[in-house]
Amino acid sequence: MRFAREHAVIGAALLTSLALSALLGESVLSLYVLLLLTAIVTVGVSVLMGHAGQVSLGQGAFYACGAYAAGILSTNGVPTLIGLCAAPVAAAALAAAIGIPLLLLRGHHLAFATLAMHIIFLSLIGELREVTGGDIGLQGIPRLDLFVVELDSPRDYAFLSSIALFCVIVLLRNILGSRPGRALRALSSSEVAAASSGIPVGRYKLAVFTLSAGIAGLAGGIYTFYLGYLAPGSFPVMLSIQYVVMAAVGGMGTVSGGVVGSALVLLTVDALSRVATLSGMPSVAPIIASYAVYAVLLVSAVLFLPEGLVPFVGRLWSRRARARSPEHADAPAEGASVSR
Amino acid sequence: MLGVEGLSRRFGGIYAVREVRLQVEQGELRGVLGPNGAGKSTLFHLIAGQLSPDSGSVRLRGEAIDRLGPARRAEAGIAIVYQNDRIFRGMTLRENVMVGAHSRASHGFFAAALRTPRFRKEERELAATADAVLDEVGLGGQADQLADSLPLGQQRSLQLARALAAAPSVLLLDEPASGLRTGERQRFAATLQKLRSRGVAILWIEHDVRLVTSLADRITVLDLGSVLAEGTPSEIRAHPGVIAAYLGGPEEALD
């Protein structure tokens, strides 16, 4: 029954997102596409952090990797659909390659190593001018051609991103509820006990690191065709930090938390940057405003909602439901479904 | 079934386990006794592969498994119940036990993501295994509860269920009975007997000397990392070294 309800929620979310894609005005549509792409990456980060206990401050690099893979291929005559498929593959391959040494580290060390990886990746893009266009950027990227239709308006990309987010959510929920997902959740609780239950801890950590990178790469690929232009400046380190803040605010380990967190943070940043760019504001106001949002949200999430917004609301909800119907006072805890 | 030969491990120059040699047969219930710091838990970690020895070898069915990590040893048939609770939090009892049966299925990320028929079949089998094992340890009605909510004694039972779900041929139990109430203790004793009759080789660390001497086939006594004595419960009771190590007369020591 719970499972059927989950399906209904995911289905309703897809329909809502498709409706928004159809109905939103041109002025907010680009923000909406950005929001969907961000949510895709954040959902992956949330699962990585919540279920495998890894903090990656390099997710923006995987996003960039996917974007550049798609961009470079399609500017060199490869069909755009193949370019899009190559985006998650390239990002996952990068993660698998660097993950082997990187995942020997944990905690803060892993976080800093992934952050360093992001910075190195950016300077590589800047240096490899012949391939990437360097700091000037990669131009003339064709629109995504799906044989039957060519996606050339922001609205098309809102539809595409909605479907991509839906697919990623279904994929992650399927995985988390199954043998590999249980293995991941188990090892985030006790690596020792997981290993002695027959779970190859290192391989699973690498697998989830690769998976979350692939998801980021997919979002990057869509971004490439949506924008039609890539430059290193589009992938600042702040991007990587932003995903982690969003995952923490929404609730780590929860798929819905990734979506809620990215929506909340992105919309707040957008609103504040509108205020900050009003005439009469000092020129540094927009930068300060956006950085401040991340800091304030992260600190308040850690202080007041350490589990994140979605699990917190979920518990409030089930507590209220229980208070109303005392005969169900010892029904199975709601946490079981929230943690998926 | 399980053989340990000349196994040693030092921490900072001090031997935690020193030249330990023991052999446990199929269907044998072997008690492991010894005062705190005798090296019992370290020995288990060496056998399960959580620690690597400085010297010596561990053999399973006659084959050296020294190069295998803990996950591969679990696959090969060694299961362990830890002394401190290491249940998987945020997961239901059934899910905890299904993790224990990890090696009995093989579907991976792709099959899970796509919900293939093989995935569905294996998940059904895993869930059925888990429910059967939970019944066996007396947690049958609580499969959908979160493991976090269990009292300590039942967390032990859950760990035991998780170990049993792997259908192990060697079972390492590190003080599984501590924290159990009388009724739970009796059920635990019955479970041990049943496992022994199924042919599982069991190594069992326990502080409750009376419980061990009444159930175990043979007993190994460790002291300062070395084997002090080995034999049947009655031989151990009469062993002068054991009596001396436990200080005082045999009645006080082993009663």
Would you kindly provide a written description of the structure presented here, covering whatever features stand out?
The complex is a heterodimer of chains A (about 350) and B (about 260). Chain A is mostly helical and about 350 residues long. Chain A contains 15 helices and two strands. Chain A has one domain (about 1-340): ABC transporter involved in vitamin B12 uptake, BtuC (Orthogonal Bundle). Chain A has helices spanning about 1-25, 25-50, 60-75, 80-100, 110-125, 130, 155-175, 180-190, 190-195, 200-225, 235-250, 255-275, 285-305, 310-325, 335-340; strands at about 145, 150. Chain A is globular. Residues about 325-340 of chain A have low confidence and may be disordered. Chain B has helices at about 40-50, 70-75, 95-100, 110-115, 115-135, 150-165, 180-195, 210-215, 235-240, 240-245, 250-255; strands at about 1-10, 15-25, 30-35, 55-60, 65, 80, 170-175, 200-205, 220-225, 225-230. The longest helix of chain B is centred in the middle third of the chain and has 20 residues, at about 115-135. Chain B has a single domain, classed as Rossmann fold (3-Layer(aba) Sandwich). Chain B has a six-stranded mixed β-sheet with strand order 6-7-8-3-9-10, with helices on both faces. In chain B, strands 2-1-4-5 form a four-stranded antiparallel β-sheet, covered by helices on one side. The chains are: A mainly alpha (about 350), B alpha/beta (about 260). The interface of A and B includes residues 200 and 332 of A.
